[in-house]
Amino acid sequence: MSNYFILPLRALIIILTLFPLNELSSQIHSAINSKKRPVDYVRPFVGTQGEGNTFPGASAPFGMIQLSPDTEKELWETASGYEYSDSSIIGFSMTHLNGTGIPDLGDFLFMPSTGTPKLTPGSKAYPDSGYRQRYSHSDEEASAGYYRVRLTNSGVNVELTATERAGLMRLTWPESDSAFILTDLSHVLRWNVVWSSIRVESNSLVTGMHIVNGWAKNRHLFFAARYSRPFDDFRIINDGKPVIYNGYRFRSRMESAGKNIQFIANYSTKQNEVILVKIGISAVSAANALKNLDAEITDWDFERVRTATREKWNKELSTIEAEALSTEGLETFYTSLYHAFLTPNIYQDVTGEYRGYDQNIHTAKRFTNYAIFSLWDTYRAEHPLLSLIQQKRDADMINSMLAHYDESVESLLPVWSLQGNETWCMIGYHAVPVIVDAYLNGVKGFDAERAYKAIKTTAMNLNYDNVATYAKLGWVPFDKENESVSKTLEYAYDDYCIAMMAKALGKTAEYEYFLKRSGHYKNLFDPGYNLMRGRDSQGNWRTPFYPHLYTEGGDITEGTSWQYTWYVPHDVPGLIKLFGGNDKFTEKLDSLFISEADSTKGVDDIAGRMGEYWHGNEPSHHIIFLYDYAGQPWKTQKLAHEVNNTQYGSRPNSLCGNDDCGQMSSWYIFNALGFYPVAPGSNTYAIGSPALRKATVHLSNGKDIFITADNLSSENIYIQSLKVNGKTWNSPFLPYDSIKNGGKITFTMGPQPNKNWGTDR
Amino acid sequence: MSNYFILPLRALIIILTLFPLNELSSQIHSAINSKKRPVDYVRPFVGTQGEGNTFPGASAPFGMIQLSPDTEKELWETASGYEYSDSSIIGFSMTHLNGTGIPDLGDFLFMPSTGTPKLTPGSKAYPDSGYRQRYSHSDEEASAGYYRVRLTNSGVNVELTATERAGLMRLTWPESDSAFILTDLSHVLRWNVVWSSIRVESNSLVTGMHIVNGWAKNRHLFFAARYSRPFDDFRIINDGKPVIYNGYRFRSRMESAGKNIQFIANYSTKQNEVILVKIGISAVSAANALKNLDAEITDWDFERVRTATREKWNKELSTIEAEALSTEGLETFYTSLYHAFLTPNIYQDVTGEYRGYDQNIHTAKRFTNYAIFSLWDTYRAEHPLLSLIQQKRDADMINSMLAHYDESVESLLPVWSLQGNETWCMIGYHAVPVIVDAYLNGVKGFDAERAYKAIKTTAMNLNYDNVATYAKLGWVPFDKENESVSKTLEYAYDDYCIAMMAKALGKTAEYEYFLKRSGHYKNLFDPGYNLMRGRDSQGNWRTPFYPHLYTEGGDITEGTSWQYTWYVPHDVPGLIKLFGGNDKFTEKLDSLFISEADSTKGVDDIAGRMGEYWHGNEPSHHIIFLYDYAGQPWKTQKLAHEVNNTQYGSRPNSLCGNDDCGQMSSWYIFNALGFYPVAPGSNTYAIGSPALRKATVHLSNGKDIFITADNLSSENIYIQSLKVNGKTWNSPFLPYDSIKNGGKITFTMGPQPNKNWGTDR
């Protein structure tokens, strides 16, 4: 062997030492592409200020554990625990809801500090009254799967990263002889820990659990935490008192149970000393939390975990390769995709076990169990997105919903399910469109007949929200049931979906039955007003009738009659007919963007208001596409462009309403591509105005959709012409069939509407 | 075929119809024996009045479920829930402690009634203020595995029976259009339900759970109840409010979670209509509670279950075939055996799963898991009895204790364990004598080396009750630890047991180490007083010293120095030597039965007082046998006879102290046979005065011990002579080796002491 070999080998060793293999390969990848990668555009702070209710912390895609700083634990409007405007941090908890309107989770708070431990968080006004610490956005950062902040009071630098079921905290300390890491088992967002327990298994392993009576009424969660350095000492605090042996009747200082438990691990630290804590969680048992932890994080290599999770994100985000008009456009797009992939969440241990809605422990067989289904929101765009580009996960989610149905004491598919609980939040039975859309989109991996049976049983339930009365009478009567108009309309749409699935399965009688029910919306259309209006059990109209009135507990869900009148996604032509034709229809629709609701009361976290069109809440989400059905697609294009540009962005305050487990973000993803699923289950998209110059969508079946928007600019927002798979396309609708095996969608854009385009049906 | 055949066949069918096969065979059995069977002598009311703290309800031998009426739920002194003197019943709950001094359990109360349901129990003084009902002992009965009472207020006749993990209630109703069965999930004895949940799975199946913060700090229990007749209607009550859907946000009326939950099943009943409810329990899950129920009670045949359980009892009780001087003597004996076989309890589902001390779900492999180890009590006679005649169960119990050790955060064998919890009640590490006694008695089925490791680790623990200080210093110093004298003495005995096992396992160094520790009792013997006396860390005697003072939290556990001075069960000759010989020893011992404690305060449920000898509590239990060691065995005989006859019996008030999970009863069983294990682990019994005329003890190895007491009468209480296996026996001690393979023990009794007998050592 000559020196020729030896010298390059040495050089290679040096290179490999300097650049671990992952980083090297990623640099090569960047070099080849000579541009940033999708993951680089994720801005986790988007939506953390104001109404978005997102969180900036660390999560793997669809992760069960989502570590994030909490700045607020009581306020309804800070449902994710973090508000960008807050100047102090309570600590770092393990679970979070992405963008809901109601707080919950925030399990198991960890807070590193120095000095004498305080046992309560203190207030935002007086942060030093508790264990809260101040921080500055200038010393805080977040990226996909990573979060960092320096806590001002103690000087501890906190970094978070996560795998699916385990989190890793890297704490860099000042020199201190009174350093400690506090764990508060009583911390949750907004609600109450009713029971908890803790065990100090060794000087570097702690396990515990709590039960939370929250939005989810009966939620059990366990954790196991390993410390990279054995603590010098420790103390459990139960209801403000140290758990110590008082010399009378023995009790172990290593375990306790109660409602209000803290654990303190004490250290003397050197300047810049690093201590890591890794935490696994499980809804099943402490033993499973430890299994999850030890299976997913086998070492103490923070950078390895961080990089691996970042790579997972990049892989998931690369499902759509996008070119935008600006960096902000790419940031908005990939942050939306990031938000869409935060929820639903894996809810199953590495053993396959999970805690079901019946509180029994089940083992998921041939599927991965998911939880947190905000279905009234996510059936609209989040799930249609998943049924396009995440079919494997979508099938798993459907199997999870079917398991929930099996475990439901009412034999109902989930309405708004949260970690083995049903919150019964919002209305309708919108697991139905999720399942039907997936089935008709060809998602494989669930039993269609079993799913259909669950759907039908759900729609025939005798107890839930007067569905039975609706089925018999033709509407939900307002004297029997709250939000009767919205419920009638949404049931009718869900029933349309059932009819579509019955038809596909050859169940003709049931197809006809549910198709008939899907027409029940007509019963609430008052031709005197050309508006939807409540009726009582005797058929009398709601009198007096205030069409612009927003009122809690009235006939409309989170909105006004003027808004909900447009909720017939499955039969817009039928609705137009009720209006008396396109002109009367579009005339009233135009007025929606000018009129104002009578009351300023109501849901105050809904912004994005363009007249009485409120983009910040879901009932409006499909409305701008209705112009496509009424011969005025250019209005759809104009409004889609306006919403894309005014209601989204890459700043903390860029979300105009609750992200609602990815629905707000998924709306954007579809609209950036140029189309939107007005009625999931119909297999038809309505075409809007694309925000991306180019996009390659990698479908779950391995095929690609190539989308280009020629001449797109901030002025050129109107479609001049369109080709689909090379053929001229003059319809404002895009059937799923035309793209399901991949294809090409070529928009040509211009500054003025082409009123001749989109006139075909 | 001739009529010869047809007629007898018809007759046989008639006979079989009149007498189901079980009853027929039992009648034949009785006929052959021409006498009553052991099970017929069981009087479950024994110990239910006053200090005994037993319960009269229905249980299978060592059953996990023990259904019984509760008359009291708050008072410390009614720890089993039932006091014979009470005149009203709160209801019937599923679990009970037999004879403990502290209340707990009483899970899941069922109460049938009529009229408007009340939701709270009401008080004993004003029973009609709640769901309590009056009853009369004249319309109440109990036998092994069966309990019946007629509730005066409603007229419902309630009958209870049980298998190991499931209970069956037979309710016979008056005619009523407002009959109901209330289940109160918030009912437990003395302590607090911190969380509970319920599900109405169908119109004849209900499941639920609760978590109890009680004596056991963190106890989880589940149930499943099937109703023989579907209820006409039902209602869940949560914190006093009905769980109904109010028309706003849906909630199911079929499930709820909270701290204070009741369930009411409504019926219209006909006169004498029978409705049965069967209930399974589990510490693992509702699903397992249902599995336990469905595996063990497959039908609605109350009589079948009752008879099968009665047969189980008869089989277990027949392990000792006894002949007494009177029916009351047999009742006392077999009721004692019945009490000895009520606890420890099976604590494992039919799946093999159980909830461990670490709150994780474990599966018992190659053993049956037991719970409820009142070891400070039961190491004395209960476990030595089991190691003689229930070796299979004793091995299972030891394996259960080893599992507890594995699950213990402190790596300690159980001290006083209660359904997956450690109560740390009482003192010492008396799992040790249980294991060592079993090992030396040849109990098979557990790993001796594993057991020894757990024993040694327990005895070397650095946290528990200053054991480490004791090991170093030679005593537990009173300035560091409460009850320091009792702890020192009991540790010394436990250490003797460890030494015996170390010796048997060939661990010479450890034998010597623990044998040395077993002599630590000498360090607290004050020759100035000839009494045990506390010393502080510096070696100073407790001053002032009150030898007769009973005081909570002093140097002595539940007693006085005068009593505890006799606690050197493993080295009585050594103790005698400290006194300065037999005369000084017996002189002081005589005085024990005359002297009185200074304080009347203290444990007020200890009766059976003969001077300062308190048979109602365990520290006295071995004392009367010490005369055997000091050359005066006739005094042992006299006192054994006196205790047998004055402190036991077959009436509700016949127990003079807490039965303590069978210890008080096991004392009697040994003494009725004529001997007692003063120091379990020593393989030696001290001989007393037999109460049975004849007894055949069926050992677990298949051999039999035949015991006769010739000339025994109420006057002939002194041993005149003794033969063991045909040989004249002049020692007051009976080595286990002499009877382990069966044998004959023949007492000859007379009215006067034979002071020449028992002089050999």
Structure write-up:
The structure is a homodimer. Chain A is of the alpha+beta class and about 750 residues long. In chain A, about 30% of the residues lie in helices and about 25% in strands. Chain A is built from 19 helices and 38 strands. Chain A has a nine-stranded antiparallel β-sheet. A six-stranded mixed β-sheet of chain A has the order 20-33-34-38-35-36. In chain A, a hairpin with a 2-residue loop joins strand 7 and strand 8 (about 145-150). In chain A, helix 5 packs across helix 19, helix 10 (about 450-460) runs antiparallel to helix 12 (about 485-505) and helix 12 packs antiparallel against helix 13 (about 510-520). The longest helix of chain A is centred in the middle third of the chain and has 21 residues, at about 485-505. Chain A is globular. At the A-B interface, strand 12, strand 13 and strand 17 of A face strand 12, strand 13 and strand 17 of B.
Strand content of chain A: 15-25%
Class from helix and strand fractions of chain A: alpha+beta
The DSSP helix count of chain A reads 19
The largest inter-chain interface, given as chain pair and residues per side, is: A-B, 45 and 44 residues
Helical proportion of chain A, percent range? 25-40%
> Which regions of chain A contain 5 or more consecutive residues with pLDDT less than 50?
1-34
Main beta sheet strand tally, sense and closure of chain A: 9 strands, antiparallel
Quaternary state of the chains: homodimer
Radius of gyration of chain A: 27 Å
> In one word, what is the shape of chain A?
globular
**Order of adjacent strands in the largest pleated sheet of chain A:** 7-8-9-10-19-14-13-12-17
Q: What is the mean predicted local confidence, pLDDT of chain A? A: 94
**Separation of the first and last Cα atoms of chain A:** 75 Å
Work out the number of β strands of chain A.
38
